[in-house]
Structure formats: C-alpha cells, structure tokens
Design a protein that fits this description.
The complex is a heterodimer of chains A (653) and B (582). Chain A is an alpha/beta fold and 653 residues long. Chain A has helices spanning 2-14, 26-33, 41-92, 101-148, 152-157, 160-202, 204-251, 253-258, 262-315, 322-364, 457-464, 487-492, 508-513, 521-530, 534-539, 557-571, 587-601, 613-616, 636-642, 645-650; strands spanning 375-382, 385-388, 397-403, 408-413, 418-425, 434-441, 446-450, 472-477, 480-481, 494-497, 506-507, 547-548, 575-579, 605-609, 621-626, 629-634. Helices cover 62% and strands 13% of the residues of chain A. A six-stranded mixed beta sheet of chain A has the order 10-13-14-7-15-16, with helices on both faces. In chain A, helix 1 packs antiparallel against helix 6 (160-202), helix 2 packs antiparallel against helix 7 and helix 14 (521-530) crosses helix 16 (557-571). Chain B folds into two domains: 2-311, Up-down Bundle (ABC transporter transmembrane region fold), CATH 1.20.1560; 332-573, P-loop containing nucleotide triphosphate hydrolases (Rossmann fold). In chain B, 64% of the residues lie in helices and 10% in strands. In chain B, the strands form three sheets. Chain B has a six-stranded mixed beta sheet. A four-stranded antiparallel beta sheet of chain B has the order 2-1-4-5, with no helix packed on it. Classes of the chains: A alpha/beta (653), B alpha/beta (582). At the A-B interface, helix 1, helix 3, helix 4, helix 6 and helix 7 of A face helix 2, helix 3, helix 5, helix 6 and helix 7 of B.
Chain lengths: 653, 582
C-alpha cells in the first residue's frame, strides 16, 4: 500500500510544479528535449547524487533509513495479516469460550510496528521535502551565479529561450527525480527483495512459478512500452511542428489578415493538427494499455500460482500447506506492483537525466576570465601626490597598479585617456570584424563613430569595456593595458547607454538608481532632470514610484532611452559610451535632451555612436567606419574638406 | 465555460461515452476477482476442493480477460476522446482566430493566443483523459467496493464509511491549503523566472554597470523565499501519505478485531474477511484518486476559461451581406472620420478627418510619433473600422466591399512586418498564389530586391528563416514591398516601410513607382522628409488631426510643424544609418 500511495503522490506531483515558460519558446524546445540522448547517464546520475550529497548527504541517508524502516514495518503488517487467520482466528473457531487475548496481544504488537512505520514515513517525507527543495534551491542559486559570470559570448550564441528553459523545465524534471523517482526506486527495490525473501521462505517452487510470470510480464511491458515510446516520440515531433507553426503564424497574424491568407493558413494547420491527433491517439492508446495489461497479468499469475500451489499442497509434496499457500498468494500480489513501478520510473529518469545534462552543461560553461589586477580606488591629493583615500567620495579616482616584481605600488589618476593600436577583432577566430583600428581619445574629448549597420561601431565600444577580448593589438586606458585592469573596475569607470534599452521590473526610481546603488532620492531626480526625463516621470501614475514591468513595456522607446541616460548619468563615470542613445527620440525632443546630454558629456571622455549628424558634428574626432575598417577620421570640418564618404553623407547622397 | 469546451467534442462524443462504460466493465471485473479469490481460498484451498479451484481459476481467467478487454478499450477510447477533443478545440480556436480583426488580436495579444493554442490545450487534453479514465474509475470503484462491503458485512463496512468521511474531510482541507500555498508560490516563482529572463536579455546592462553581485544577492533572496514557501506547501502535500497510512492501518486493525469476533461467531468466513481487506484498500485508494483528479480539474479550469474566452469572442469586422466585389479605382475619401480604439475611450485617436485623394496620386504622410499616421491608413483597408464618419475607396464605403476584394485592392506594407519560413518565392506568392517567376522578378525589380536576391547563391529559392532573421532589415523591407506589389493593388500603402533602406535605393524605388505604377494611389508614411518631399501632396498629422495637406513647397511656407521637422532634419543633414551599402 505504501507503493500505491507513492504512486498517488507521483500523480499529484504532475499537476503541480512550476509552470514552464509562458507562451512561445517552449514548443520548439520541447520537441528537441524529448529525445533523451544522454551521453553518459551513469556519470550524470552520479554527479546529481554527489550534488545532493554535498549539502544533504546525511539527510538523504536518514531518508533512506526511514524508508527501510517503513518498508519493514509495513512487511510486518502484511505478515500479521497472513497469520491472522491461521494462527489466531482458526484456532478459536469451535471453541466454546474463545480467548481473544493472544489476538489482542498480536494486534498490539502490530500496532506498534504500524506506528513506527507511520512515524518513519512521516519523517522520511518531511526530510525529503527539505532535501529535494534545498538541493534545487542551491542548484538554482549556483546556476544563476554561474550564469552571471559567463561572458557575453555565451548569451550571443545561446537562444534566450533555451537558457530560460534550463531554469523552468530542466530544474523541474530534476525535482521529480530527486524527490520521487529515486526514493521510489529504492522503495520498490527494497520491497521486491523483502517480498522475495518471504516468498522463498514460504515456498521455493511456487516462487519459481511466480518469477516465470514476472518475466513474462516484463517482456510484455517492454513490448508495449516500446510501441508507446516510439509513438510518443512521434507525438512530440508533431507537437513541436504544430506549435512552431502556430507560433510563427500567430506572430505574423496581422500579415495573414492583410494578405487574406486565412484559408491557406487553416489548410496547413489542419494537416499538422491531424497528424498530431493521429500520433497522440496512438501514443496514449499504448500508454493506457500498460495499466490494464499488467493488472490482469497479475491476476492470471495469481490463478497460475493458486492452481500449481493447490496441486502441490494436495499432492502433499514440496512441503506446502494450504495455510502457506494462502499467505503466499498475498505476497504474490504485492510482488507485481513494485516491478511495474520500476519500469515506469525508468522512463522518467531518462527524461530527467537529459534535463540534468543541460543543467550541468550550463554549469560547466567557462566563466568570463579576468586576470586584471589593476584596481580603481577613491583617491585624494596629498602634498601634490595622489594617495588612496578613506572617504567614500572625493571626486578623484586613481588606478592602483601593483608592480609585483619590484613590490611597489603606484597610483595613476583616472582621466579617461584611451588609445587603440592596431586592434583586430572577430567574434570567432575565423571571421574578423575589425581590422587595424587605431585611434586615441584625450580626456574630456568626444569621439563619434559613424558608418552603416554592421560597420563595427558597437563592436569597438564593446572592446573598450572588455565585453569581448581582442585578438591582436593593444587598448590602453590611461596608459594601462585594459587587459591588466580588473574588469569590474574598468566597467565601473565607463558609463554605458546601450542601443537596446533594458529596464528591470522595479520602480522608475530603482531603475535609475541601478547606475549607483547608493544614490539618494534627490540624486535620482537630479539625474532624471538632466536626461529630461523628469517631466514624463512625474506624469506617470505613481511618478518615480511607478512600477515598470516587462522591460518597461508601458513606456515608449524614447522614454526608455531617457531613463537609460539618467541611469548612466547617476553613475557619474569619468568616461561614457553612448550607443545610439537618442535614436528613438524624435528630432524635436532630441533638441531638448541635447542640453542635458551636453552637460552630461562635459569633462568626460565620450564615445558616441549615432546616425544623426546633429549628434556627432561637434565631436572632437569623428571616425567613419566601413566594413570593420576606419576609412576617415577627423573633425567635422576636416572631414568635410576631405570631400569623401563623410561629405557625401552630410549632404545626403 | 465547460459547455463551450465540450461542445467541440463533435465526432468524439461516442468515444467519450464509451470510455467510462468500458471502465465500468474493468472495475466490475476488478471487484469480482477478489470475490473469486476469496472463494478459491475458502472453498478451494481451505477445504481441498481441487474441482472448485479449477472452476474458479478458470472463471478468474475469463474475468481477467474481460477486465483486460474493458481496460484496453477504455484506454483506447479514452486516448481517442481526449486527443480528439484537443484536435477539435485547436481547430476551432485557430479558425476562430482567423476571423479576428486586428483589435480582436490586440485584445488577446499574439503570445496570449499562442499559449492558448499550445499549453492550455495540452492541459485540457490531459485533464479530460484523466476525468474520463481515472476520475470515473475511482468513483465507480469507490461505490462498488462500498456496496460490496455492505453486502458482506454492514458492520465492517461502516468502519470504511467512517474512514472515508475522515479522509475526505482531511483531504479537502489539505487540498485547499496546498492550493492556496501553491498559488502563492507559483506567482513568486513566475516572478523569479521573469527576473532571470530580464537578466538574460539585459546582461549587457548588468555587466556594464558591474551589477553581477547585486543581481546574485537579489536572486539568492528571492530564491530563499521561494524555497521556504515551497517547503511549506510540499509539507502539506506529503502529510497526506502518513495520514493515509494511519487510516489504512487503523482500518486493518479494526477489521481484524471485528472480523475475528464475527468469524468465531460464525457470521463471517475467512475468505470474506480477506475480501474485506482488499475492498478497504480499494475504497481508500479510490478516494485518493478522486482527490487527485479534483486537483487536476481545478488546475485545468483556468486553461478552459482562457480558451472559451477566445471561442466566444465575436470578430468585430465581418463581411457585409451582398458585398461589392469590384473596386472601381484607387481614389480615397475620408468623410468626417473619427476613430477610437475603444468605443468607450474619451480620447479620439483620429478626430473629424476630412480628406480626398485622387486615384494615382502619391501622398506623403508625416508627423511626430503618436500622431496617428498608422491609425489613419489602417482605416482604408478596414484593418480597423471607423468610430464615426465614413471612409470611401473607389467611391464606395469600405464597409460595403467584400473584405478580400478590398484588401487585395488596398495593399498595405505594415510597419512591423513579418516574413515566414519558406523560400523567397513562397513568401512573395503570399501576394498572389499563382504568380509566375517572371511576375515575382518584375515586382522585385521594382522594389529593388532583385539585385540582392540575385547575389544569393540560390536566388529566389533561398530559404528564409522564421521571421526573416537571415536577411537584413533593409532586405526584409524590400521583400515585403515586393510581396505587396504582387497583389497588383489599386492603392499601395507603405507604413514606414523603407526606414532601413538606404536613401539612394529608396529613391530608386520611388522613381520606379512613378514610372511603372502611374495609376496606383500611393500613400507613404515616412520619418525622413527626403522620402516624401516630391510627393503630389503631403499630409501633416498631429495629435490625430490634419495640420496641413499640401505640396512640400507650400507646406514649408505655411505649416509650422512641417517646417520644424524639416529644419531639424536639415540640421542633421545626413542620416548615417542610410549609408549606401557597398
């Protein structure tokens, strides 16, 4: 009965658990995820165990002990039922004054066993919840922490939906394995062993008969499960195809409408829908067969045992009494159940291992390397020399450069001086996207990059803050090779406003404060005013405390850009990178923002990527890029007098 | 709601009725078999009656076969009924969505509709199969086992009844508690996943501001909180097991004690006692199954609700009766047109617009973001319907045309456009199914797409990835224009459709239109003045009202907004994004 309840628990488990990713994205993944091609299942299982063991080894051991206790207690109960009739009831029949004393005593003993069993089961379940949920919590935390440390390349090369699905689908399949499949497997195995021992003790020949039936059952199960499995594969494939179609067509539904393509869309849909129906029908049909087939084979096994047992008992051979036969029959019944369960669990374990495989793959991704040792410190001037300061803010920063060889430390002021020498870069080694980039920016200068899409403008800025590392050449920041600067400190010294603005689910205020966590409310509002965002923020329902959700879905693209500018402003960095920071702000509004932008850029080295001439014309240096090469470089006037590409652009065609 | 869903059963009604019937057969056999077992023990084994054992053994084999038949057929029809319901639901939903107007679609949003067609339907399918098989089975099994026990011994059966009442009460309390806890934790879980997603999408921001540790800490906090909530919720669920065990054990002891007395008194046989044990298990297990199905049904009811919302949604743009099937020419007239997205909203998106455009004219439309340019042109092909006033195309109210006729004559290149997975030719032929390769080439030349298609190794057979992700923005826009041209429309509307096309190419497209499509009325929404300045007339929109409608030269003199836009752009001079691709 314990097994049965476990099964119930399992069923109820399928109805809960966190939901998968909402909407699109899940479909395609599901189709791929269904094919559990795990390379080395043993290794993954081992790793999973060692993972659980690391934090919850003892607890898990206690769970297993409790499990043994509850199974044994349960077996005692079953034994009692066997002896109930033979040893206690039958002797009393016919006696004039039946003595219920021995029965009461036996019941008392059994009740104690039951109580122990219940307590063990209770403890086992409670601890298991902690083990399973705790392990998952640690796994999630480790996953997230590891993910945060991964280089941008990882995010570029992996679909966001796939990464997400590790958190949603894969982790959840692990929960089932840890909290259900494994204890259940253990339980089943244990039950099989105990029951088998009891059966053998009662009658070896009958056990042999019973085992023959079990083998037969396993063969049939394997056959049916195999058929069902191949149809399930087909079903998942069809489901993936249909869901993919639905996702694509509904995303483009407006185009379907405009081209009156409805009938054709339905036609194709019907085809896919029909084939899904066929495979789903077959898959479920075979899956549904397993239960009844096993149950009835169990019954037939019972009949076979009773017939052969009766024959043995009546012939007086094999030392079988009718009483033992009756007990044996009960064991026979409880023997079949765990075998079915093991065969059912194996399928879900294989599925889960595929999930575990993806989780571990993410954990095995190499994190962003950072060999930098030059750090950024708050500095102050003493006797004309720059020294580190204890104060949180002095307005001065210095690069702390330790020279290990000489054992000396020197402090260089943070100024925002940048030099690129013969820089080559490619996202992969095969394909270079930047060639021979040479440029320099003096502190406080404004450098603009112009050129067509794909010319490499954004890529250059991504090299400055070391989102990516260069293949060849040198980038020096205040005379220090950027490779030597600790990434964290390098990035802190560079404010960024990115082309695609990303806001987080939080209030407007918190989103701006993201740039500087210790900023006061006044400072937040100052920054917003600087970016010309204050006006619209005050018009929002709760002003600065308005919650933004879905990447700022309730704001226009232009408003989001203004917030991103405010976020960079509050960070107050010595150097700024503005990547199309005002592209979605219309030309009239941009004029308004321009004042704030100018204030923001004042005294800071600024790298600007823009497609509007008005944004770049007053730069100290304009760099014209084409296909990863610098083709022209100079001030607005210089470039105009060159009468080259820049000239061509400025005067439209 | 349930009615709406079940009405889609259609041809699978038969399977839906047969499934429970076969399940009854299976359950009946399941109940008979313990009786036979009891009889085998009582009268066969205990009394050494081999004939009886053989007779009943044979009967049991027959019963097992009948049970197997019932189980198999139940499984088969259950699978069919639920897969069939899913198929019909999916088809009805999809067909329903095809009749939806833009505003119907907006109401549910594309992702919302996708979830309904995928996850929600799968949930319903599973729940339906569960109801047909498990719930029905458990209920029947409960009733039959209970009845049988009462027939054997009312005294002992009343113990079961007590146990059922006790467990029923405990389960319903626990389910309610667990559901409450789980709903809470799921909401938090969703939030956690959303914030992970934000971190993935916004990883550049996180890294640029060096906020990894901050994010880790935030995650750890939320994660810890979820852990606590999950443990609390799971603890409720796992308490079921010991309670269930306790009840069963208590029953066994009570049955043993009472049974022993009754057997000694001669009012019960040992075989009957064994049957009672197995009925006891049956009754309590069925109860547990019922509670599980109940949870399942409750959980899928949210999906059922979402689906029936779509099924009962009325499309708000439908074909008129006796529609016109001929559009005379490409003239357009707006007569006192007011438009609101919601009839109830106060603010009009378009406010009393009056406008006349002759066939064959080229009209530029310009105005700041939010000035309702797109809304204006959407009224022409009835993507939305006017709230007040009338839009005439070819001299007739747009609402009098057959929708397909109208939309084939008024070809719109949407701002947010989509290409579909398939070859370039497949995509172009959305415009006209039977278009020949020559037709396609001709429109591609006009849209300046032929040039880059020719450079693809596979030319017009080049495979386009979903959403057109393997072509550049400018290429995608040009393909979309070509696709729209293939309709040979009388009116062509470009809604900011050349924003990613460089200025030189854009000019070639405009010139081609002028030369080869003189009779087609062309409406061009643009951001750049240069895209529209040589149009016959330019419409300047602001806040849903016409601010000016005249030639470039005259607008420069008379219209302040237009002049302002013009100056801000002249100041900027070039637009580096539109650098001719070399």
């Amino acid at each position: 009965m314990a097994q049965q309840s476990e099964q119930m628990k399992n069923m109820s488990a399928t109805t809960r658990g966190p939901r998968g990713p909402k909407g699109p994205g899940g479909a395609g993944r599901m189709a791929r995820g269904m094919k559990p091609t795990v390379e080395n299942p043993g290794k993954i299982l081992g790793r999973l165990f060692s993972y659980v063991g690391k934090d919850y080894g003892w607890a898990f051991a206690v769970v297993l002990i409790c499990l043994v206790i509850s199974v044994l207690a349960n077996a005692q109960g079953t034994m009692f039922m066997q002896t109930l009739i033979d040893s206690y009831i039958l002797p009393m029949i016919g006696t004039a004054d039946p003595d219920f004393g021995p029965l009461l005593g036996a019941m008392g003993r059994v009740a104690c066993f039951y109580a122990i069993g219940i307590i063990a089961a209770f403890a086992q379940n409670r601890i298991m919840v902690k083990v399973a949920q705790g392990s998952l919590r640690n796994l999630r935390r480790e996953l997230f922490n590891h993910m945060e440390s991964l280089p941008l390349k990882y995010f570029d090369t992996n679909a966001h939906g796939d990464i997400m699905s590790v958190y949603t689908n894969d982790i959840d399949t692990l929960r089932q394995v840890i909290s259900q499949s494994i204890p259940q497997l253990f339980n089943s195995a244990l039950t099989i062993v105990t029951v088998l021992v009891c059966m053998i003790r009662l009658s070896l020949p009958l056990t042999a008969v019973s085992m023959c039936m079990v083998v037969l059952m396993l063969l049939v199960t394997k056959k049916v499960a195999g058929r069902s499995g191949s149809f399930f594969m087909q079903q998942q494939k069809d489901l993936g195809a249909l869901n993919g179609y639905i996702e694509e067509m509904l995303t483009g539904q407006k185009v379907v409408k405009v081209f009156c393509h409805e009938d054709k869309a339905i036609e194709e849909f019907t085809k896919l829908n029909d084939s899904l129906f066929e495979s789903a029908d077959q898959a479920n049909k075979y899956a549904n067969m397993l239960g009844p087939v096993n149950a009835q084979m169990g019954n037939i096994s019972y009949v076979v045992c009773v017939l052969s047992g009766a024959a043995m008992a009546l012939s007086g051979r094999f030392g079988l009494t009718l009483g033992t036969l009756a007990s044996f029959l009960t064991f026979n019944k409880s023997f079949n159940m765990p075998i079915n369960q093991i065969s059912m669990q194996l399928g879900s374990i294989v599925m889960a291992l595929a999930g575990a495989d993806r989780v571990f793959k993410l954990l095995d991704e190499k994190p962003e390397t950072d060999d930098g040792y030059v750090t950024l410190v708050v500095a102050e001037e003493k006797d004309g020399k720059l020294v580190p300061s204890d104060k949180p803010y002095t307005g001065l920063w210095a690069w702390k450069h330790e020279h290990k060889a000489e054992g000396t430390v020197d402090y260089k002021p943070l100024r925002g001086d940048l030099v690129m020498e013969d820089v080559d870069f490619g996202y992969t080694d095969e394909k270079m996207v930047l060639h021979d980039i040479n440029l320099y920016a003096k502190p406080g200068q404004k450098i603009a990059f112009v050129g067509s899409t794909g010319a490499g403008k954004t890529t250059i800025t991504n090299l400055i803050n070391r989102f990516y590392d260069i293949q060849d050449g040198k980038i020096r920041y205040d005379g220090i090779n950027v490779g030597k600067i600790k990434k964290e400190d390098l990035r802190k010294s560079l404010g960024m406003v990115l082309q695609d603005t990303h806001l987080f689910t939080a209030t407007v205020r918190e989103n701006i404060r993201y740039g500087n966590l210790s900023a006061t409310d006044e400072e937040v509002e100052m920054a917003a005013k600087l970016a010309n965002a204050d006006t619209f923020i005050r018009q929002l329902p709760q002003g600065y405390d308005t919650m933004l959700s879905g990447d700022g879905a309730n704001l226009s693209q232009g408003q989001r850009q203004l917030l991103a500018i405010a976020r960079a402003a509050i960070a107050n960095p010595p150097a700024l990178i503005l990547d199309e920071a005002t592209s979605s702000i219309d030309t009239r509004t941009e004029r308004l923002v321009q004042g704030g932008m100018d204030k923001l850029m004042k005294g800071r080295t600024t790298f600007v990527i823009a497609h509007r001439l008005s944004t770049v014309r007053n730069s100290d240096c304009i760099v014209v890029l084409e296909q990863g090469r610098i083709i022209e470089k100079g001030t607005h006037q210089e470039l105009l007098s060159l009468k080259g590409k820049y000239y061509q652009l400025s005067f439209g065609n | 709601m349930i009615g709406t869903i079940l009405s889609k059963l259609g041809e699978y009604k038969k399977a839906s009725i047969l499934t429970p019937l076969f399940m009854i057969l299976e359950v009946a056999m399941e109940m008979v078999i313990p009786l036979m077992m009891a009889s085998i023990i009582d009268r066969g084994v205990n009394q050494g009656d081999v004939g009886h054992i053989i007779r009943f053994g044979f009967l049991m084999v027959i019963a097992a076969c009948v049970g197997l038949f019932g189980g198999l057929m139940g499984g088969k029809y259950g699978a069919r009924a639920s897969a069939g319901l899913a198929r019909n639901l999916r088809a009805s939903l999809y067909e329903r969505i095809q009749t939806f107007s833009f505003s119907n679609i907006d109401k549910f949003s594309a992702p919302g509709l996708i979830t309904r067609l995928t996850t929600d339907i799968t949930n319903i399918q599973n729940a339906y199969q569960m109801i047909l098989r498990m719930a029905v089975r458990a209920l029947i099994s409960l009733i039959v086992a209970m009845t049988m026990s009462f027939m054997i011994s009312p005294r002992i059966a009343s113990i079961f009844l007590g146990a059922v009442l006790f467990l029923g009460a405990v389960f319903s309390f626990m389910i309610r508690l667990a559901m409450k806890y789980f709903t809470e934790v799921f909401a938090k879980y969703d939030q956690l996943n959303e914030s992970v997603q934000e971190n993935i999408i916004g990883i550049r921001v996180v890294k640029a501001f060096v906020r990894e540790d901050y994010e880790k800490e935030r995650f750890a906090r939320a994660n810890e909180n979820i852990y606590k909530m999950l443990v609390r919720a799971e603890n409720v669920v796992v308490s079921n097991m010991p309670i269930m065990m306790m009840t069963i054990y208590a029953c066994i002891l009570l049955i043993s004690w009472n049974g022993a007395h009754m057997i000694v008194a001669g009012s019960l046989t040992t075989g009957e006692l064994m049957s009672l044990f197995s009925y006891c298990m049956n009754v309590l297990m069925s109860l547990m199954m019922l509670s599980v199905s109940f949870v399942m049904i409750t959980m899928s009811s949210a999906a059922a609700k979402r689906i029936s919302e779509v099924l009962t949604e009325e499309p708000d743009i439908v074909n008129p009766q006796n529609p016109e099937t001929e559009v005379a020419d490409g003239s357009i007239r707006f007569e006192d047109v007011t438009f609101r997205y919601q009839q109830t909203s106060e603010k009009a998106i378009l406010d009393h617009i009056n406008l006349t455009i002759d066939a064959g004219q080229t009209i530029g439309i310009i105005g700041p973001t939010g000035s309702s340019k797109t809304s204006l042109i959407n009224l022409i092909s009835r993507i939305y319907d006017v709230s007040e006033g009338t839009v005439y195309v070819g001299g007739k109210d747009v609402r009098s045309y057959d929708l397909e006729t109208l939309r084939n004559s008024v070809s719109v290149v949407l701002q947010k456009n989509t290409l579909f997975s398939g070859s370039i030719l497949d995509n172009l032929r959305w415009g006209r199914e039977d278009a020949s390769l020559e037709d396609c080439k001709r429109v591609c030349e006009l849209a300046q797409a032929d040039e880059f298609i020719g450079r693809f190794p596979e030319g017009y057979e080049t495979h386009i990835e979903q959403g057109g992700s393997n072509v550049s923005g400018g290429q995608k826009q040009r393909l979309c224009i070509a696709r729209a041209l293939l309709k040979e429309p009388k009116i062509l509307i470009l809604d900011d459709s050349t924003s990613a096309v460089d200025t030189a190419t854009e000019r070639k497209i405009r010139e081609g239109f002028k030369t080869y499509l003189p009779d087609v009325t062309k409406l061009i929404i643009a951001q750049r003045i240069s895209s529209i300045q040589d149009a016959d007339k330019i419409l300047v929109l602001e806040n849903g009202q016409i601010s000016g409608f005249d030639t470039h030269a005259r607008l420069l003199e008379t219209n302040e907004i237009y002049r302002d836009i013009y100056e801000s752009q002249m100041e900027s001079g070039g637009d580096f994004d539109a650098l001719p691709q070399t």
